[in-house]
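Re: the multi-chain job from yesterday

Posting the exact lines I submitted so nobody has to dig through the queue logs.
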Amino acid sequence: MSGSGRSSGDIDAEVLVIGSGAGGAPTAALLAEAGFDVLVVEEGPWIPQGALRPFSLQQMERQYRSGGVTVALGRPSIAYTEGRCAGGGSEINSGLYWRPPGTLLERWRDQYGLASLDPDGIDKVLDEVERDLSVQLLPGAASGPSEMLRRGAAALGWRHDEVPRWMTYSDQEPAGRRQSMTETYLPRARQAGARIVPECRAERIEIRNGRARYVAVVGADGTRRRIGFRHLIVCAGAIQTPALLLRSGLRHNIGRTLAIHPTVKLAARFDSPLNVPDDVPVHQVKEFAPQLSFGGSASHPGLVALSLADSWDTFGDRIVDWQRMSVYYAAITSEGHGRVLAIPGFTDPLVTYRLTRRDEAMLGRGLARLSLLMLEAGADEVYPSFRSAPVVRTRADVAEQQRRFSTTRATVMTVHLCSTVPLGGARDQRRGADEWGAIPGVSNVAVNDASLLPDAPGVNPQATVMALAIRNVRHFIESDRFLDGSS
Ligand SMILES: Cc1cc2nc3c(=O)[nH]c(=O)nc-3n(C[C@H](O)[C@H](O)[C@H](O)COP(=O)(O)OP(=O)(O)OC[C@H]3O[C@@H](n4cnc5c(N)ncnc54)[C@H](O)[C@@H]3O)c2cc1C
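And the result, structure tokens for all chains:
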């Protein structure tokens, strides 16, 4: 380790980190604080928290990849979204914080041969993350849309919780300030000397004799250059990380095991105004978790209209009541899987996803139970988001809804993507990375983001992504060989 300052020769940085999201930002901060010379390249722009209205179309344009219009092909195709800005998904997400359950970590340890995965150790890391991100419950009462989830679940006797968030609250910002990466770990990384270059996209890793030598990057103005480094840590997220590795010729078990939490939606109308355009509900209903969970989505008028759009002929005239409506989702832990493929000559990868029959049935059942939950909460009408859906006013309508449902008619989407470079022990046939995220076959490259999750966690994933990233980077720092023995 050189400790500080720029390295000499064709080395621009001791450690190059690609991507500055929930995996990349803590990776950069901890390395810089340990004295490493760190350079972070981030494809998207640096946009401070508060500069754009949360969940607005303007935010989607500036901070989401392709304005939020990205899709995994299949029957049905599944719309997905990724952050593309400094801080990645942490800047635009709902901030809902879940520790990975101990039973999940134990299953991962046993099923994938991850002997070093210690649930107690992860818990200790999460204590730190909670402190660093100011994870807390709302200081006051929850919003109307959140209260409806609580009320419906209480009426049905279903388990429900207010989920804490990474937010700070003050008189100036009573609705909260999201403690995303640009508020927390990225300033820490800078403070410790890391250089962060936004609007700089990594295109390809140049590998010779089993060692990564350069990364070819392109700036927003089209300027191209090569960056030299000793160690490379790829944190570009569960779609872009495998895409970059595949473009660079690293293919073994890369991009073959995409896991997601597919969701279906509905809009519910109540008797008085409750819509909150720039925030999401904090309650989730976990009676059927981890297989099936319910929660609330962003509900500004454009998004309410979108959730009515599948059956616009029947539902469209209700849009005048948008202030009395909010959008809710049913999310499942899918048994299907998807792929990320790099297509020569194309900038974006091809993403596919196949739901299983059981997934499809579960989505139909989940949406029906969500309608019931909304009726119990006091909704006078519920509008499920699939073509030819009925207006739901009674329990009998819920049965009709379930009869008519099919995933090929529904808008299925996800914001939780993972497992495209899964961690695995030496004997795990599907592993894309070793127990700590290092890529077998190339001596100085590791991955440290959502790609590493062995499979879908069944809870909002950011805390799991961060905990694994912090654990891995500490391991690299503490091992005197770092990634490959050069120091
Ligand atoms: C709308 C939305 C809502 C969500 N809500 C929640 C929630 O409430 N709770 C929760 O726990 N999780 C939530 N998530 C998921 C959570 O945000 C992700 O799990 C987490 O951000 C993943 O971290 P990551 O580091 O793997 O990827 P990201 O955070 O996506 O970071 C990857 C970064 O790499 C950059 N990048 C990509 N390719 C390149 C390249 N070639 N060169 C340079 N840079 C590149 C991207 O621009 C991005 O900044 C949500 C996600 C979304 C999109």
